[in-house]
């Protein structure tokens, strides 16, 4: 009985974990799109670095989804 | 004499360039009068820039809140013959609150080991949780920085412009011609603004947008002086 409850809980954790990280991944994609749009509108010295950071953020968000699927 | 096809294409106003001129690399692009005007305009701009440098001083860093006559900065709506004279962003001091919050968020996971219950959470869960925490912290700081970096107030030789991105999703572009400016005032309120000398510059215009506000910009009185110089000069072409 307790074993069943634990397995249900761990399944719920996994589902919530994956759902949360996927939503975060969408947010990271929005950031990339926005930084690109803003960089097109306002051009300055550090735009390239900011775009790189947004892609780095997206890459880590993808890793997080992968970890949520495999580790949790 | 037989006429060649090339000769048929020569219009009456085209400059006549001989073969030897081509050999020397001669290409006539502008009439002499236009070159003279360019020289006069360049001198006018140099004079104007010197006046503005006299008021504000030179920009020390590209991430400075006040950029004078920037060479790299540009914006999409700029006309070809429009020159950027001043770019202002909110004062650096406006970033202090989110920088402090970020530092606290970075330190927070290291304090969690003092919470006894959290020790029972499996190691793999802790790892994913901490990674997610730092990712959210980074996103928070990055978004705040972008908010500051892309919130720009521009003064060109033709107009004043306010470009603002709300929550990274909504772009707001306000502009008014220099000739439409009716009144310019500044306000410095509170301890922080007085200490670091930053505040709002309120520009009343006769344009469609009745008021443009440069928010929390450094040295508002200097920005007003720059606007005064430009209004005295009139639209410089």
Give an overview of the whole structure.
The complex is a heterodimer of chains A (72) and B (237). Chain A has 72 residues and is mainly α. The longest helix of chain A has 40 residues, at 2-41. Chain A is rod-shaped and about 60 Å long. Chain A is built from two helices and one strand. Chain A has helices at residues 2-41, 47-70; one strand at 42-43. Chain A starts with a helix and ends with a helix. The model of chain A has no long low-confidence stretch (mean pLDDT 91). In chain A, helix 1 packs antiparallel against helix 2 (47-70). Chain B has 237 residues and is an alpha+beta fold. Chain B has two domains: 32-90 and 153-233, PH-domain like (Roll); 95-146. In chain B, the strands form two sheets. Chain B has a five-stranded antiparallel beta sheet with strand order 1-3-4-5-6. In chain B, strands 7-8-9 form a three-stranded antiparallel beta sheet. In chain B, strand 8 (198-205) and strand 9 (211-218) form a beta hairpin. The longest helix of chain B has 27 residues, at 123-149. Chain B is elongated, with a radius of gyration of 27 Å. Mean pLDDT of chain B is 81; it is low at 1-17. The chains are: A mainly alpha (72), B alpha+beta (237). Chain A binds chain B through residues 13, 17, 20-21, 24, 27-28, 30-31, 34-35, 37-38, 40-46, 50, 53-54, 57, 60-61, 63-64, 67-68, 71-72, and chain B through 62-63, 70, 72-76, 124-125, 127-128, 131-132, 135-136, 138-139, 142-143, 146, 149-150, 152, 163, 165, 168-169, 171.
